[in-house]
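Dear support,

Our group has been running a series of protein-ligand predictions, and this particular one with fe (iii) ion is the one our PI (initials K.S.) wants archived with full inputs and outputs. We had some confusion internally about which version of the output was final, so please treat the block below as the authoritative record. The input we submitted was:
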Amino acid sequence: MRNLDHHTITQAVLDRHANTDNPRFKLIIDSLIRHLHDFVREVELTEAEWFAGIDFLTRCGAITDSKRQEFILLSDVLGLSMLTVAMNNDKPEGCTEATVFGPFHVEGAPHYELGADISNGARGTPCFVQGTVRDPEGRPIPHAKLDVWQSDEDGLYDVQHEGLAQAQARGMLTADEQGRFYFQSILASAYSIPTDGPVGELLRASGRHSWRPAHLHFMIKAPGFETLITHVFRKDDDYLDSDAVFGVRQSLIADWMRKDDGTYEVAFDFVLNAAK
Ligand code: BEZ
Ligand code: FE
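Confirmed final output from the archive:
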């Protein structure tokens, strides 16, 4: 196996995987190699362009830490995250649709009683959030666990505020016996995903904006049901049709209503799919 050229090298690499004992791994790595090689041939990649790609990925790694995940962001803006979510969450009619997880979920957020204010000092117009968690037959799911997170009115999640020690506008709640949940938070605002790293460069080079329509994140778990990772969006947001990460679903758009006292409220019911 010598003197490989730009055509014969692909099969040579695939042949090296002949002894892989994990068939799923083999399928994935072989397909990845074929597509990567085809891509390089199709665009006739130069060595300088290859190096620019390596440099880009190196800088994605360098900026990533426990609070900043540039690789998830990259996957999000390339539509890879939503493609994977859409393909793996084809739920029966009536179940709440899933959307992107995003990089701002934090494990172990504080637990709040129903009715509590989870904003915990986050800047924003007060908003009361309520709804019910049900099964596909419409029966309430008692004690479903809800993990909720959102940005403040400046479009920043708590983890993006340098030096902020406590959780803000995020928390865990447990639905009551009738599957009901309710809590106080703040009005969701449209925000820009982080653009101060390599992904920002990519967006600028592509002539794209970096905005996400206003939304509130939910992750809902209950024994016997598929975990649901989703958002509730605000109707009339300017970015619903150009979300930087392609996550909008019509069924997830709700009317966040302004009350006479200037505060808001939103109601949204979730339907979990039975676990497979
Ligand atoms: C988010 O909604 O938190 C998010 C999703 C994808 C990229 C950046 C942020
Ligand atoms: Fe978000």
